[in-house]
Amino acid sequence: MKTVKIIGVPEHFNLPWHLAIEEGAFEERGIDLSWTDIPEGTGKMCELLKNQETDLAIILTEGIVKSFTEGNKVKIIQEYIASPLLWGIHVDANSTYRSLEELKNTTAAISRFGSGSHLMAYVQAKQMGWETEKLKFNLVNNLNGAVESLSTAKSDYFMWERFTTKPLVDSGIFRHLGNCPTPWPCFMLVGTDEFLTENKSLVKHIQEIINIYTVEFKQIPRIDATLANRYHQKLEDIQEWLQITEWSQKQLPEDTLMKIQETLKELDLIDKSVPISKILN
Fold it and tell me: What is the model's pTM?
């Protein structure tokens, strides 16, 4: 058995991986796929990839592209989620903020610099016509840190995946002010250069297995109820999420990757674009 380390967020997007592991699909091909949840998100995952503490990751597209331009020795193996991520924009339920316009020149809570919550704050600001150089941030590590930061007014707003945060809205902890979808496919399967170079056939096996699971995922009987129970979501929220979410079994298109780099460069989030051939496996 070959042990392979993979990391991802503890969110409903990644259930196909857990089902494949639990059903022994990887073991059948001699692969011990060891999954670790990373609640801190993409910024933390970029660090773990850079430090060779994992082989693979399911990671936000904008975060890994930025990290790659900064020297992280990784490559995109394929798209995992082809649809945009719906980022919810939240404030503390007891705050005075009632509209997105009121958040101009306030402080955003972010899990880490280079994380989705950090990078998408720039995308959101650009859409609102704000001066991105005036954005202010407070590091909160994870979702629990954001709850504490907003409730004590250390931060004013927090952007996180809409459906993951919805229970906090329903329970009166957060107030939801709006959404900001990513302008590109949201999650990628990536690997470190060293692992990909040394394990080409193994990576193909892993791709084949997960693609079998994702192509039929929505057709699994009562998958909506399974997701709702497992991730503590309302059934109707999961059903809405399933309607807008598409899994992918192909590589990220080159023109999309060029657009992502151009957008990040426009926002001064990266200094330079990198040749496409160096990023795609």
Answer: 0.91
